[in-house]
Write a structure and sequence with these properties.
heterodimer; A: alpha+beta; Helix Hairpins; Heat Shock Protein 90; 3 domains; five-stranded antiparallel beta sheet; five-stranded mixed beta sheet; 53% helix; 18% strand; B: alpha/beta; Rossmann fold; Arc Repressor Mutant, subunit A; 2 domains; five-stranded parallel beta sheet; 8 helices; 12 strands; 21% strand
Chain lengths: 456, 227
């Protein structure tokens, strides 16, 4: 087999890029949300601060509520002390003229409002104002220059970009790393798969260096490989048996055809050659049948089978055959049991087993066929008092081309019991060979139909 | 009797035509489904031996075409595909019988004979089936000859009934397994022989054994021995 070139370690692939982008987008969305929340909080704090300062400047004096003059005095006092501030205070009289304060701003509406004014420089500046109408119609205004909020907003594009890029990079890096780690764990599996593809069926994935789902997966793959190896070995054994069983009649055939034969013996020779051909054909027919049943390609007409009638019919057919071989067939108790099944396959199953009595037991052997309902099963028993099978042979003879030690004659295809077992399996039943002391006891259990159905 | 042999394997086709020729048939040989349709277009055939796997048009397709045109002669289909399913497909497509390769020429001839006769009108059978003075009584599974009567078991009875229906024609073991036993598998023991010898022993008690064994091929019930 030609070795395949060593496989390139797989790159992170599209998955990494997809994952990185998704990660980056998620991070971006999160950044925007954080930003919006922060901005909202800052605005809220500015508004709160404005309220505090309004309360502070309009607080009552000892004689009662603060008058306009009190407030103006407070503003002027503040101006005198504070030279530098992000906050300023304005006082307008009822006519809307600016009475105190140093900001060129038209009187805003009472309540909170966003205002634009000319600060120290040439550029207009934005601010937040809280105007409070006093009982006499004058207006007290606190203006806060919202520099913090503005600079926060100015930051937004660069923050967004930074978050996106770094999240993308982190996402990609994480995915690539993850892919690498995964690939390293899968490399063992891949190496094992390659080795198996090269024909080394004994190779398994070493699972001791793996953890978590990788270990679980490796174990399940190894179990699958164990089963496959068994199946392949069974198949190999089957093929080599098949080759052997076909070679034998073929060799004899060639021997016959190439032997120097006198003219007079030609007819006899041709007859023998034909017999060899027939035994090859028998093997092929049986093989085909076995494959047909095992792979479920048999066109089964599954219906209710009256087993008692069918066994009586088979016994009638097989009795002369068994008698001609010098053996005897006896019918035991036959209970009226019905099963779901394929009549043709059922016939073959029982005929095969009775043919084994003819083929594999000496003259004088007595066989007994009986049928009973055992629990939910139909129990078919074929017992004989022949030589039986040794303990170890009983399982072996169920395999294709395996024969009991006693059957030196090699009649038949060597597939009879394998076919019988396949038919039993097809009917979801079980087949058991046991010691009849002396002889062989064959037990077939098939799922019986309930008696209520049988009575009908 | 004119028979069309549709078989692409030259050796098998030669063998079939030569054999049919010596038996008094007039075989015509073609190697493809298309040629078979053309041949049937030209003249009538009493029977056809049709291989299933042909180059180009398959045997099944040939059957379908001829059946649609109502020009299908009695057909024995040959095939290397021998499973029960293949057989059912062949019969469903319109073949009268189906023979898996490899086969005996005797088997093919017997089956061809049976299907071509089947196409001809057959006398009503079963109830009071009779050949000469040999009569069957299905109700009691008994057989009558002159003034004597014997009872047969069910298998022997259906075996004799089948041979009587095919009187004077070769019936092979394979045909008996299929029609008397209904077995689609090949038994490894001599089921037909053993049951046949029991039947013949019973018939001898009756004083009339009209059955001939043709070694290696099958059985014939001779009507002239039933008189």
């Amino acid at each position: 087999m030609i070795a395949s070139p060593a496989r390139r370690a797989p790159g992170p692939g599209r998955l990494a890029i997809q994952f990185g982008v998704a990660f980056a987008l998620a991070m971006l969305a999160m950044g925007v949300i954080v930003f919006l929340v922060a901005e909202e909080r800052i605005a809220q704090r500015i508004d709160d601060a404005l309220q505090v300062h309004v309360t502070k400047f309009l607080r009552p004096v000892a004689t009662g509520p603060a008058t306009d003059a009190d407030v103006i005095a407070r503003i002027q006092e503040w101006q005198r002390r504070k030279m530098l501030s992000e906050r300023t205070y304005l006082f307008y009289d009822a006519a809307g003229r600016l009475v105190a304060g140093r900001l060129d701003l038209a009187a805003p509406q009472p309540g909170y409002s966003d205002v634009t004014f000319m600060g120290g420089g040439k550029k207009p500046q934005k601010g937040r104002a809280l105007a409070t109408r006093r009982p006499d119609g004058s207006l007290f205004v606190v203006v806060q220059h919202s520099e913090a909020a503005a600079s926060l907003r100015a930051l937004l594009p660069s923050v967004v970009a930074a978050i996106f890029v770094s999240a993308l990079l982190v996402g990609l890096a994480a995915t690539i790393l993850f892919a690498r780690l995964t690939a390293r764990r899968l490399a063992e599996t891949q190496a094992a798969a390659d080795a198996i593809a090269q024909g080394d069926l004994t190779r398994r994935i070493p699972s001791n260096r793996l953890d978590g789902m990788f270990a679980v997966q490796a174990e399940s793959l190894n179990r699958m490989l164990d089963r496959m190896e068994d199946m392949v070995n069974a198949q190999r054994q089957f093929s080599s048996h098949l080759a052997h069983d076909l070679r034998t009649p073929l060799t004899r055939l060639r021997g016959l055809l190439t032997a120097e034969t006198a003219e007079a013996d030609r007819v006899r020779l041709l007859e023998r050659a034909e017999r060899e051909c027939a035994s090859i054909i028998t093997i092929f027919d049986a093989l085909l049948r076995l494959a047909e049943i095992e792979t479920g390609r048999h066109p089964s007409a599954v219906r209710d089978l009256p087993l008692r009638d069918m066994l009586e019919d088979i016994a009638e057919t097989m009795e002369p055959v068994i008698a001609d071989a010098g053996c005897a067939l006896e019918l035991g108790r036959l209970e009226p049991v019905r099963v779901r099944g394929d009549a043709d396959l059922f016939n073959q199953m029982i005929v095969n087993l009775l043919e084994n009595v003819v083929t594999h037991t000496p003259a004088g052997t007595r066989a007994k066929l009986s049928l009973e309902q055992a629990g939910e099963s139909a129990l078919i028993a074929i017992d004989d008092d022949g030589p039986g099978l040794a303990e170890g042979e009983r399982d072996r003879v169920l395999l294709p081309f395996e024969r009991g030690k006693g059957s030196g004659l090699r009649r038949g295809s060597g597939l009879g019991l394998a076919i019988t077992r396949a038919i039993v399996r097809f009917h979801q039943g079980s087949l058991e060979l046991a010691d009849n002391a002396p002889g062989l006891k064959v037990r077939i259990r098939l799922p019986a139909l309930p008696e209520a159905v049988q009575a009908a | 009797m004119r028979v069309l042999v549709v078989e692409d394997d030259a050796v098998i086709a030669d063998h079939i035509t030569a054999c049919l020729g010596t038996l008094g048939y007039r075989p015509e040989r073609v190697a493809s489904g298309e040629d078979a349709l053309a041949a049937i277009e030209r003249q009538r055939f009493s029977g056809m031996v049709l291989d299933r796997l042909l180059p180009g048009m398959s045997g099944i397709e040939v059957l379908a075409r001829l059946r649609a045109e109502r020009r299908l002669p009695p057909v024995v289909m040959l095939s290397a595909l021998g499973t029960v399913k293949d057989r059912i497909e062949g019969l469903a497509a319109g073949a009268d019988d189906y023979l898996a390769k490899p086969f005996d020429m005797d088997e093919l001839v017997a089956r061809l004979n049976a299907v071509t006769r089947r196409a001809a009108p057959t006398p009503p059978s079963d109830t009071g089936l009779a050949v000469g003075r040999l009569k069957l009584d299905p109700s009691s599974h008994s057989v009558l000859f002159l003034d004597r009567t014997i009872e047969l078991n069910r298998k022997q009875f259906s075996l004799l009934a089948h041979l009587m229906r095919c009187a004077d024609r070769l019936v092979t073991r394979g045909m008996l397994l299929e029609s008397v036993w209904g077995y689609a598998f090949t038994p490894t023991t001599n089921i037909v022989e053993s049951n046949m010898s029991r039947l013949r022993a019973r018939l001898e008690e009756l004083g009339c054994d009209p059955i001939d064994t043709l070694r290696g091929s099958g059985y014939v019930l001779r009507s002239e021995r039933c008189r």
